[in-house]
Amino acid sequence: MKKLMFALAALALSATAAQAQETQAQARRPFGVGIAIVPLEPWTVEVYAPLAVAPNVRVEPSLGISTRDESAGGVDERDVTIGVGLFYVAPVATSFDLYMGGRLKLNFAKVDDGVNDESGTDVSLAAAIGGEHYLATHFSLGAEAQLGFYSESDVSGDASGLYTTGLAFLRFYF
User: Fold this and answer.
1) Residues in a beta bridge with 51
2) Is the pLDDT of residue 58 over 90?
3) Domains in the chain: how many in total?
């Protein structure tokens, strides 16, 4: 009888813990603003707006601006990137979520070297997987890895290929 009582108590405790974890994950804030830090591209700043459209689905539009002006070399580069991500979010701990999905981005680039003024549009589609640790209810730190395909089109020709990149995120939720 004691074994049966112990087994029922353990089952009830595990169900309560799972329910508490699911309740905590559902209590995540539905809208936020985030900044991506791209370690290999120091002139890039991207702002993200994560939006929970369902308990486990996130849509994340983004806007990025990158500029580089080298007065000594006379090269002026400007990029404006708009994009959207769609992710499945899975809570794995009380304060940690994993997410996986994809990102689609359009990049409008312009390069002026003083002699030639070129512009073009780049398209990229990437599979992404990441994790997000909630340091507080409204604030999280995260990292994301991407494997993607890009296609560039400019005055000098077309190019395409595969790429990998990593991002670090700071997100604030309302």
Assistant:
1) 31, 59
2) yes
3) 1
